[in-house]
Amino acid sequence: MAMPLLFIALALSFLPHTQSKLSAAYYDKTCPLFKPIMREIISTKQINDPTTAAATLRLFFHDCMVEGCDASVLISSNSFNTAERDADINLSLPGDSFDLITRAKIAIEVQCPGIVSCADILAIATRDLIVMVGGPYYEVRLGRKDGFISKASRVDGNLATSSMSVSEMLSLFESKGFTAQEMVALTGAHTIGFSHCKEFSHRLYNFSKTSEFDPTYNPKYAEALRKLCAKYTSNTAMAAFNDVVTPSKFDNMYYLNLKRGWGY
C-alpha cells in the first residue's frame, strides 16, 4: 500500500507552481514559527471539522491546475471581475477549506507580517492534512508567490469534468506536464471526501436502452446510490462518499473499490 500512496504524494508535490527559488527551509529565518503555527491551526480545524482534509486537498488542486499554485483561487470577485472561485466548477469548493486558510493566514500575520504567502499556506496545509488522515509525509518546497490575477474565464478547460472522456482527461493532464500514471495517482486523492450526486447521476438513471445504470457498477452498489441520490434534482447538495469503505482515511481503498465496481 505504501508505494501507491507515496506516488500520489509525489504527484501532488509536482503540481505546477509559480516560478521562484523554492526551498523547504524558505521561512526558517524570516518566520521560524510558520510550521508550528500551521500544525496547531490545522489540527484544531480537522478535529472540529473532519471534512477539512478533503476540502483543502480539492481547493489546492483546483488552484494549481489553473495557472499554477499561486492561491489565486482564494481571491474574491468584485463588481469589476468574476474571480476563479466563482467559476461554475468551483462553486462547490467547500467553505471549510477557505476558512482554514483564512485562520492560518491571520495567525501567521500576527507573528510574521507580510512574510508568508497564501500559496505556501495552502500547500503546507494540504500536505499536513494528508498526513493527519493517514497519508504519507512528503517534503513541500516553499517560496511561492501569491497571484493577484484571478479570472473565472481562465478556469474552463483546465479542470477535468465528469463529462470528459478518458482521452480528453489524458490530454488535459498531459498539457500540464503529467503522465498517464501521474494522472491516475492524482485521481487517487478521491480516497477521501465525497462527490455530489449530480456529477454522476447520468450513470445511475436511464443510462442506456439496455440498462438503467452503468453496468460497470456493482448492481447492489448502483442500487444503493440510486436510492441515496433519488432526489438530487431538487436537492443539489446530495452527495456520496468517493470511498465507501474508508471515506475518511487516505489509503488505496479507492482503487480497490473501483475494481469491485464500488466507485465512480
TrEMBL record:
EC number: 1.11.1.7
Catalytic activity field: 2 a phenolic donor + H2O2 = 2 a phenolic radical donor + 2 H2O
A Pfam family per the record: peroxidase
Entry note: cofactor: Binds 2 calcium ions per subunit.
List of residues binding heme b: 190
Source organism superkingdom: Eukaryota
Leader peptide range in chain numbering: 1-20
Molecular function terms, GO-annotated: heme binding; lactoperoxidase activity; metal ion binding
The entry's keywords: Calcium, Disulfide bond, Heme, Hydrogen peroxide, Iron, Metal-binding, Oxidoreductase, Peroxidase, Secreted, Signal
Residues the UniProt record annotates as site (Transition state stabilizer): 58
Catalytic residues, chain numbering: 62 (proton acceptor)
Needed co-factor(s): Ca(2+); heme b
UniProt-annotated binding residues for Ca(2+) 1: 63, 66, 68, 70, 72, 84
Residues the record lists as binding Ca(2+) 2: 191, 243, 246, 251
One of the GO biological process terms: hydrogen peroxide catabolic process
InterPro entries according to UniProt: Haem_peroxidase, Haem_peroxidase_sf, Peroxidase_pln, Peroxidases_AS, Peroxidases_heam-ligand_BS, Secretory_peroxidase
Annotated Plant heme peroxidase family profile domain residues: 21-264
Disulfide bonds: 31-112, 64-69, 197-229
Family that this chain belongs to: Belongs to the peroxidase family. Ascorbate peroxidase subfamily.
Matching PANTHER family: PEROXIDASE 6, PTHR31517
Function text: Removal of H(2)O(2), oxidation of toxic reductants, biosynthesis and degradation of lignin, suberization, auxin catabolism, response to environmental stresses such as wounding, pathogen attack and oxidative stress. These functions might be dependent on each isozyme/isoform in each plant tissue.
Protein name according to UniProt: peroxidase
Highest classification ranks of the organism: Eukaryota, Viridiplantae, Streptophyta, Embryophyta, Tracheophyta
